[in-house]
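Study this one:
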Amino acid sequence: MVDDEPTASRGLPLAQLAELQRAFESALAGADPESPVPSCGRWSVRELAEHLGSVHVWAAGKVLGERMERPGAAAARDGASEDCSLATRYRAEAELLRTTLSSVPPDQPCQTFTGLGPASFWQRRQIHETLIHLWDLSQALGSASPEVQPAVWEDCVAKVVEVLHPRQLRLGRAEDPQDSLLLVSEGSGRQWRVPAGSSAEPAAVLRACGAELALLLWGRLEETGLTVSGDARAAAGVLAGPLTP
């Protein structure tokens, strides 16, 4: 079994996922479904909520090794579904994911992005997915994003560098960077090299807080507003990736 989940990363609790999901649901409750979400291209709030909810259900299916239907799908096919709000639908999808994750041991084998791995892979991945899309929604609604522990943001950085970007390269979705970039968290001093495992001397060093680094890697921020030392053009080339799906 391939296990890419470091012990520290497995420490992200299910309660963290629940907290982020409830914040997303709360923001949805007062939102106009047709409002645009600029950080997600042409998506509306409705499309963002549908995306995140469907990803939760898909991840739950990966944990159990089966294809799962979204809550209410069967009733909808029978023409008996109720007209419920985005927040209500999202709540059901979020609860399905949490119930699934809590029903299996964290180390239960399942399919992951890197082959067979522990179920904790999906708990960690869905925390990051919800974290980024909660930021998207908050920005779209002009509201402040809820406070999240710096360690969670830093773990989001680690996941991109160690798992998602290598997967992008493996699938041919991104080209191997010509240069190496060193990311440094100003809060903890943690460091990550992009691409992961590179032995080349970094062409540039980028320093920021964990949240800024995570949002940068997910294409939500521009590096021009952050502290870059060395070759800024090389840094931009590495970050162009795309580093994430």
In short: The longest helix spans residues 120-141. Strands lie at 109-112, 115-118, 181-185, 191-194, 204-208, 227-230.
